[in-house]
Amino acid sequence: MSMSDDDIFEKVQAALVDALGVDEDEATRDATLVGDLGAESIDFLDIVFKLEKSFDIQIPREELSPEDILTNSQYVQDGVVTPDGMTELKTRMPWADLSKFEKNPRVQDFGNLLTVGDLCNYVGSKVNA
């Protein structure tokens, strides 16, 4: 059963409002999970749990957070993701818009990359697979 983008957004937004205690009007498609909505690593466990339950899907941690790339010296040099690392991130995260990050790919900024829209795209790729 395929879900529309709007249906997915509504459920993702509800999960974020519940998990982060933000208002619906803050959880827009363009809002970043960390910078705009204040999500911390502990919150992501709650968000993932709520999304898994809400959509009846499994979300492997490494799909949303490819830390093995960001901590690998093959892909990161001097705190910056290398071109090979960017290629690997794009392969692993086709649902995320990495264009802004690509301009200045500092590892420390990666956490502030994901938007509500990216999360919706990810969930959509699982639900409508």
Structure write-up:
The protein is mainly α. It has one domain (5-127): Non-ribosomal Peptide Synthetase Peptidyl Carrier Protein, Chain A (Orthogonal Bundle), CATH 1.10.1200.10. It has 8 helices and 2 strands, in the order H-H-H-H-E-E-H-H-H-H. The chain has helices spanning 5-20, 41-55, 61-64, 67-70, 83-92, 99-103, 107-110, 116-127; strands at 76-77, 80-81. Strands 1-2 form a two-stranded antiparallel sheet. Helix 1 (5-20) crosses helix 2 and helix 1 (5-20) packs across helix 8 (116-127). The N and C termini lie close together (10 Å). The mean pLDDT is 93. It comes from Neorhodopirellula pilleata. Carrier of the growing fatty acid chain in fatty acid biosynthesis. It holds the Pfam family PP-binding.
Notable characteristics:
ACP, 8 helices, two-stranded antiparallel sheet, 129 residues, Non-ribosomal Peptide Synthetase Peptidyl Carrier Protein, Chain A, mainly alpha, lipid biosynthesis, globular
What percentage of the residues does DSSP assign to strands (E)?
under 5%
Query: Count of helices?
Result: 8
CATH H-level homologous superfamily name? ACP-like
Amino-to-carboxy terminus distance: 10 Å
Would you tell me the structural class of the helices and strands?
A: mainly alpha
Q: What is the correct CATH architecture? A: Orthogonal Bundle
Query: In the CATH hierarchy, what is the class?
Result: Mainly Alpha
As residue ranges, the low-confidence spans are: none
Order of helices and strands: HHHHEEHHHH
The CATH topology label is: Non-ribosomal Peptide Synthetase Peptidyl Carrier Protein, Chain A
Q: Could you give the count of β-strands? A: 2
Strand order of the largest sheet: 1-2
Which of globular, elongated, flat, extended, rod-shaped describes the shape? globular
What is Rg?
A: 15 Å
Structural domain tally: 1
